[in-house]
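Suppose you are handed only two things: the residues of a chain and a line of SMILES describing fe (ii) ion. What would the bound structure be? This form records exactly that question and the answer produced for it, so the two can be stored side by side and reused later without any lookup.

QUESTION INPUTS
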Amino acid sequence: MEKEGNILIVDDEFGPRESLRMILKPLYNILTADNGQKALEIIKSSPVDLVTMDLKMQGPQGIDVLREIKKFNSDIEVIIVTGYASLKSAIEGIRYGAFDYIQKPFNVAEILSTINKSMERKKLYSQLKVFLKEIGKLVGLETEVAEIRDKFSDNSGFIDAARLVFNKIAEKNSANKNQINYLEFARLLANTLENRDPYSYDHSGRVNYYTNLIAQKLSMPKKDIADLQVATLLHDIGKIGISNTFIFKEGNLTEIELSIVKKHPEIGALIVEPLQISPLIMSVIRHHHEWYDGNGYPDGLIGEEIPYCARIVAIADAYDAMSSDRPYRKAMSLKDIKDEFSKNAGVQFDPEMVKIFIEILENKNNIIPNKSLIAGEPKFAVG
Ligand SMILES: [Fe+2]
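ANSWER OUTPUT
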């Protein structure tokens, strides 16, 4: 089995160092050091994703070692290992950028869960950095973006960084008087977002396709259909700052987790705001989770208060969710999906639009195979 990353265990006591090594060895590549000096040497010479460290060691003060590690590479996650007596310094460590602390004697489940969460955060941040880099390249602002990118170190920092980048793009755009190719731009954003896991792979592409079919049936103007295309690719852009653990978590989310996930339409609108894209696109990003009966989010709009295009995207979005595999369930059948839409006409969805969409689904030629990467080969998720 491929190991999930490289962990450096720093502890001057042999016992705890070895027991931690035994716990983590099956999942990660393990390096060990018995003092802070050695730890810093290892970090500078080999790739390390995460460090577990006892702050009370011989030699340089643990907290100084922690600061050195973060100075050398802020992407390295640090988890503090502590005895009850040194809880106060563990909390201080968190102030200096440590992810969390674990207490001695070790509880295996707790250690694994803390390390797992920390690795997940690290993965998310490096994807966010790649995302910003790609955007910088696309608009010819590589150096400026690199500077902004290196400054952020948490989620809200990312939103600020993304806004700064988009501000620069908007400035450049108005100076050059040439319009950004928003479709290309949106496609890049969507790809970056969806490539991070197989469950959402090409989600926006499919939402785009079904939205387009509905828009054609509704005889919308060409200009609006073009905007809708960009809007579908960007609709979930706010999820870029939210960990996959929440988005694809099996079963019920805790209240806090749910409130984070529900923030994605607002975050999305905030991120792209500096670009001053068309109001139609903004309305889809912000309102695609509103419900026709007013029970949706973020604004609880009712019926025709919900922007027209957001109502269309809500249907295409729900169709794609139902016809795709999820970690905790298989894709639904076409019949079940149609039943679900009928049941929710006037509740979650615009009833007139549901009628049109069910007509679209009656024609099997309209249904695209849902390529599931999980199954390893293309398959028809509906029918
Ligand atoms: Fe969404």
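WHAT STANDS OUT: The pocket of fe (ii) ion is lined by residues 235-236, 264, 288-289 (CB under 6 Å). The two ends are 36 Å apart (CA to CA).
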